[in-house]
Amino acid sequence: MLIVHNTLHRQHAGRHEMFRGRLVPCHESPDRLDHLLAELHKRPVGTITEPGPLDEALLARIHSPRYLQFLAGAWDEWVALDPANAELDALPSVWPVRGFRADVLPANFAARMGLFSFDAGTPLTAGSWTAARQGAACAVAAAQAVASGSTRSAFALTRPPGHHAGADFFGGYCFLNNAALAAQALRDGGFERVAVLDVDYHHGNGTQSIFYARGDVLTVSLHGDPSTEYPFYLGYADERGEGEGAGCNLNLPLPRGTGFADWRAALGRGLDEVKRFGAQALVVPLGVDTFEGDPISAFTLRSADYFDIGRDLASAGLPTVFTFEGGYAVAEVGINAVNVLEGFGS
Ligand SMILES: [Zn+2]
């Protein structure tokens, strides 16, 4: 397995997020990758490499120009409002809900930040844009290596994560949708039908929305029931895609407290759908926040279960790209993620 690592991820280090009514230290932190790298050092499952420059044209096919332009300049605008802002993270506080205009681009920075986001849990910092771009470059490089046939599987070892980011919004700790970029790179690399099978605890709302009307990319997500779990407003079983994408989205919501037997049965349903779709390549947004000790999630998977997840995913027999997503029981993040990779094999 090829492992493409984001060496500049550390530049995205938020101080606080809004969580259950309070500003708390960010759950999504640089030390998550430190634990993963330490575990990979103990149990090497592949070769670690750095990506080349990000493919700008590919980025612009997944994300809208006005969103990319906003992200590129957001930190400078934030500091220009008040030099003291350099010591603070930028967080949105106002959003255009139903009945407001989303087509106009306000001059006001806070208004634009709300337009391009959906929560107050995703701080934008001085290095967020650099780190997000570097992470996206890892995902694209991983997919291009798989598409070229130089490796059968690859892991984009990156943060910030990506699966909550839509074509023109950030949120859920995500800015650029690494899994969507990987899927597009696989399509561009010659695979005509690509499946995304999201195993993070949270619904992959960004990936779903990006591909919702497309028939060439299947999106499947198994996740905490959005009726009670973040991101709440998407991820229900009746969302099946639209237009050319009708029938090309499958959500498998599961109740809080779900254990591995039931979770694994849902994974089996997801894999059946991937097969039925006739996917030629697979992207797995790999979150390990399904772990029993995760501080913001409520499934009860144990570390040993992650080997079986890897084996089950390998049973699809497809060229596969993993992107690293959630997992906030920081000490166990490395063990659980590497268990998946080891179970998967090469
Ligand atoms: Zn998650």
Describe the structure.
This protein has 346 residues and is α/β, with parallel strands linked by helices. It has one domain (2-51, 128-344): Arginase, Chain A. Helix content is 36%, strand content 14%. The chain contains 10 helices and 10 strands. The protein has helices spanning 31-42, 56-62, 65-81, 109-115, 128-148, 178-188, 205-211, 260-277, 305-314, 330-344, and strands at residues 2-5, 16-19, 22-25, 47-49, 153-157, 194-198, 217-224, 249-254, 281-286, 320-324. An 8-stranded parallel β-sheet has the order 4-1-5-10-9-6-7-8, with helices on both faces. Strands 2-3 form a two-stranded antiparallel ribbon. Helix 1 (31-42) crosses helix 10, helix 2 (56-62) crosses helix 6 and helix 9 (305-314) runs parallel beside helix 10 (330-344). The termini are close together. The chain binds zinc ion. Zinc ion (ZN) is lined by residues 200-202, 287, 289, 325-326.
Which terms summarize this structure?
alpha/beta; 346 residues; Arginase, Chain A; binds zinc ion
Concise summary:
The chain has 346 residues and is α/β, with parallel strands linked by helices.
Shape: globular
Query: Count the strands?
Result: 10
- Alpha-beta classification: alpha/beta
CATH class, named Alpha Beta
Order of helices and strands: EEEHEHHHHEHEHEEHEHEH
Total tally of structural domains: 1
